[in-house]
Amino acid sequence: MARLAPLAEAHNLDAILVGAVRDGMPDSDDTYVVTAAAAAAGRTRYLRIAVAMDLRGSASPLRVAEDLGVLDVMSNGRLELVLRPGAEPAWTRDLEAILGAWTGWPLADSGTPAAHMPEARTPEGRTPAARKPVTPSPVQPEIPVWLMTATEPATARPQSRGSSIVFVDWPGTPMIPDADALREMRRARDDAGAATVVVDLAGTPPERRADAVRVLGTVVGPCLRCPDDEVGILALDATDWLLRRTELHRPPLEDPE
Amino acid sequence: MTQQREQTTVPPLEVGLGFWSMQSTYMRPIPRAQVYREAADEARLAERLGFDTLWMGEHHMSYDGYCPSLFPPAAGLLTATSRLRIASGVMVLPFHPARRVAEGCAALTSLAPDRFRLAVGIGYRPVEFAAAGVRLADRAALTDDRLAELRGPELSGRMGPTDLWVGTGVSGGVARAARFGASVLLMPTVASRKVAALRQQWSDELVPVAGGPVPRLGVMRECWVDTDPGMVDWARGRLTEMWRHYSNFWVDDPVARRARRDELAEQMGRQALFGSPDEVVDRLGRLIEAGSDTLALRVRFDGVSGGALRRCLRLLAERVLPQLGRPASGVGT
């Protein structure tokens, strides 16, 4: 993660998603994921840092809120959440509690405001339910949240605003997708009504992931961003550029200025 | 017992710096993201100057953003450096289920094998317990249960050979560390004259644990070194102000009991090691003679950063460490 994230940033990818979008994957506990994502945040400045979580790992909702606050501050407001929702009502309540934690978290009895805090009493003299904000609060006014949906291909819909995400597997072979494969990715995106394509590298052997990131940045990214009628020529030229290791890849002097 | 004592033969002196608690306080209100950027820069400097360890700190629901969540910033600091050990100092174990701790440690081990130190404590601030829904009265038992889980077969494999420490200021905490084969970090409230006795207790009671690093006993102290007395006075003033505010964590009614808070701040300030390089060497020497093999020097107290901190760190590295038998840089590799 610490190696791939700066590479992704240098290749003009928009975001890195850390964690698992399917249940049962190894190293997908929320605490593990947030910790690994922090390594990516620490090595980058612009890349959006998305974490895939299920809120049912080893951390309580309060600890999740604290983890997210710290990660958003560490990354200077680059955090995004992709959640695998639970079916039970408690899951939704937990999500609401987490996203509201920075304005107030309920305290148990032992934290009830003491008598010497007059501001903690209502005009009628009652002590209201004590709440205290979780800190640090995120840098962003609102952390973007997506919820995974059970579709094929997998998608995630925005919780409040934004466009959907579609997840596509990285074929791996051939290493560089051709124009047809790139058009297929665009079609998957458009069919899902999504604005964002997340390419899943989980099945790619670790030693090939850096190359995959280079391909994503040089060929796939441009071909997903360009108009329809340019995909063919852009795929051809970008692939040629990536493969053709010519003297044009580096200036004759490292710093011509 | 003889065998246990042999296993606690005093290891080479380790010198670390503390406490990066990621605060933006009223004494130095800076953008929160800058706090974390500065921490990474300062970790790199500490590594270049030859310090062994950077200690962090945990509190919850503090206005200044005091770091409540140590695993993410530990990951950031580990990736910003290549040799420096990063220590949680201390993680409040009653607030974190053992499995969460194991998962965080597993992620950090994957990023930087053998460079994360897990130091835990039992916590004390009522509001933090109230938020977590944990009874203050249960904190010792919860800590014991979780340490047992972390040392147990189910989680120890996930964590790997863990550099486990217990932060404490009392004999009961030292006994807990010994029981779990953990190292000890004595809080600044422990006077120098008590260090030898606590070391002896820990050494006598220490239960050996297979694998992992040799257990240590360390002492935490506020510390500031400068050749200019004006700088020392300035730093002392900042420290006193920090303790004066921080003491509101320790008293029931911080507004009415301001005089008590001033007393506490002064009391804490007396333990601090402030002065010229020679003066600080002298006082650190006493801690080492008393049996401390690890020094956790708190130079990063509220609001102290930038050029003043860099100057202090350089003087520590160049004028203090060599007199403690440590080369000026590149040590601990």
Description of the structure:
The complex is a heterodimer of chains A (257) and B (333). With 257 residues, chain A is an alpha/beta fold. Chain A has helices at 4-10, 30-42, 61-74, 89-99, 179-191, 206-225, 231-243; strands at 15-19, 48-53, 79-83, 105-106, 131-132, 145-149, 155-158, 164-169, 194-200. In chain A, the strands form two sheets. A seven-stranded mixed beta sheet of chain A has the order 1-2-3-6-7-8-9. In chain A, strands 4-5 form a two-stranded antiparallel ribbon. In chain A, helix 5 (179-191) links the parallel strand 8 (164-169) and strand 9. In chain A, helix 6 (206-225) runs antiparallel to helix 7 (231-243). The two termini of chain A are 33 Å apart. In chain B, helix 8 (171-179) links the parallel strand 5 (163-168) and strand 6 (183-186). The two termini of chain B are 32 Å apart. Mean pLDDT of chain B is 92; it is low at 1-7. At the A-B interface, helix 2, helix 3 and strand 4 of A face helix 2, helix 3, helix 4 and helix 5 of B.
Which characteristics define this entry?
heterodimer; A: 257 residues; alpha/beta; two-stranded antiparallel ribbon; B: 333 residues; TIM Barrel; eight-stranded parallel β-barrel; 13 helices; 16% strand; disordered N terminus
Give the biggest sheet of chain B: 8 strands, parallel, barrel
The 3D shape of chain B can be described as globular
Low-confidence segments of chain B: 1-7
Distance N terminus to C terminus of chain B?
32 Å
CATH topology of chain B: TIM Barrel
What structural category characterises the helix and strand content of chain A? alpha/beta
Mean pLDDT figure of chain B: 92
Class per helix and strand makeup of chain B: alpha/beta
The number of distinct helices of chain A, counting runs of at least 4 residues, comes to 7
CATH class group of chain B: Alpha Beta
- Rg of chain B is 19 Å
Helical content class of chain A: 25-40%
Task: Round the mean pLDDT of chain A to the nearest integer and report it.
Answer: 90
The CATH class of the largest domain in chain A turns out to be Alpha Beta
Helix share, percent of chain B: 40-55%
Which strand order do you get reading across the main beta sheet of chain A? 1-2-3-6-7-8-9
How many β-strand stretches of chain A?
A: 9
Reported CATH architecture of the largest domain in chain A: Alpha-Beta Barrel
Low-confidence stretches of chain A: 110-121
